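Researcher: Please generate the 3D structure of the following complex. Treat every line as part of one assembly.
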Amino acid sequence: MTWKMVSKVEDVKSDKKDGKKKSLFTNHEISMLGIRSNLVQASFSYERMHAPGWTWAQLPFWEKIYKDDKQGLKDVMTDNMEFINSSPPLYPILMGLLLTMEEDHVDRTTIKGLKNALFGPMAGIGDAIFWFTIMPIAGGIAASIAKNGNVLGPLLFFAVYVFLFWSRIPLAHLGYNLGTRAIDVIEDNSKIISHVASILGLTVIGGLIASYVKMSLTINIGAGNGAINLQKQLLDKIFPNILPFAFVFLLYWLLRKKVNPIWLIVLTFVLAIVMSALGWM
Amino acid sequence: MTITLTQGILIAVWAMIAGLDCWLQAFYIFRPIIVCTITGLILGDLQLGVIAGGLTELAFAGLTPAGGTQPPNTVLCGIMTVVIAASNNTAPTTAIGLSLPFAMLMQYILLFYYSSFSLFMSKFDKYAEEGDAKSFKRLNYIPLIIVVLSFGIVAFLSAYAAQAPMHQLVTSMPQWLTHGFELAGGILPAVGFAMLLKVMLKPQYFPYLLIGFVVASMIPFSNVLPVALIGVVFAMIEYYRSRSDAKTEAKLKELETKGDDMEDGI
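Model: Done. Output below.
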């Protein structure tokens, strides 16, 4: 909602400022740019990452701009086949922004330079927001509802992501209407946003470790009446969930030693099966 | 129960839809919570699908493709968890462990495509140089079709064709092994969280991780919303603090430059 309002306000402003200048694209077409931004990963490969899909998504728009300029179309296609890798949900802003510049026939190297300057920082913000904040929160809450067999869990999760899917439309409008002014907005806010998203994400991960990693020893120490339950009478007395917390940090330490995540999964299974066979867990 | 041919085909079709979404990341219906629910619906046990979805989603929390790693595939894991649980009457937690080899198989197929799709790039470059928009658009469908068909074939073979040996394996498993898989399903989220921490954790963020952990340990609640709200509180405090800091800094700079000017004047 707020995005839409912002972009509408900007719309009026730019109309006034530029006077006669009329946009080549209708509102509906800019919305379609937002939807088409979902294609960026279509031909994903390690060599160019999103480049072919990124070009595909925007191709109909360039065809309209360079209708009578075959060389222009060739140039824009070739330029955009260069390596690009950013956060998919944020591509609409970048596409909208570059489309205004393309439409104004800004110098090719300027457009290219700007694209290369922006996609990296945007990847950082996007990952922090979408994978590390929204995903654990939406997934965690939906899963805790679904675990009890309540179908509202998956429905809630789906609703969140349908909302995010449609949010690409206002984002495309935002990028298109802000134009080059978007650069300042992104540069001013990228640091604060990723900082704040990290804080939220890490608080949630701390909570998730306590709630969702299940490790509890069943072994008793000593014999007969003097036997104590290691988990209930020792570990839980020190701090509840101390075992999951310690295990996560063991894995974290291994990852920092450049151990492949697949080995961590193998380690987890071996540990669980050994503990089960010994009757310790 | 056994998986009928119709159910096998329906699962393959569903795997193709979810697989396409997994490749493009548009609607996130490739996440286990959705994949399991729909698979449960296909097998006529929605309840099981939803429960398995919740459990598998938690096991895969944090196993994300962010940061350049490709985790075990959630589509195959979700489908096979429900298929194994339904056809062998095993607990979903045990089934998650058993579905992992299938998820890894799909993961390695996708990794292979990530490398080999580089072969299409020279063709893309050629169409771009020629300004041939039509062929360029058409070429993009080929990788998509390859990926979608792979999902369908792998899911059909895993869910339908492999069900007899799978059943034999599951029923011949001793109790300690089944229990071991169940335990592993409960510990597995630790791997995802460790991966998240590797990307996100910097010393200055450790206090937030700790407070989230302590709060969730002390106030057991059915979901993480209270912890998330505490996170929002910290985030807001820090947001306004950073913004006023930035303003002060800008002012300081202004003063400094003014000071310089005056010195020059003297």
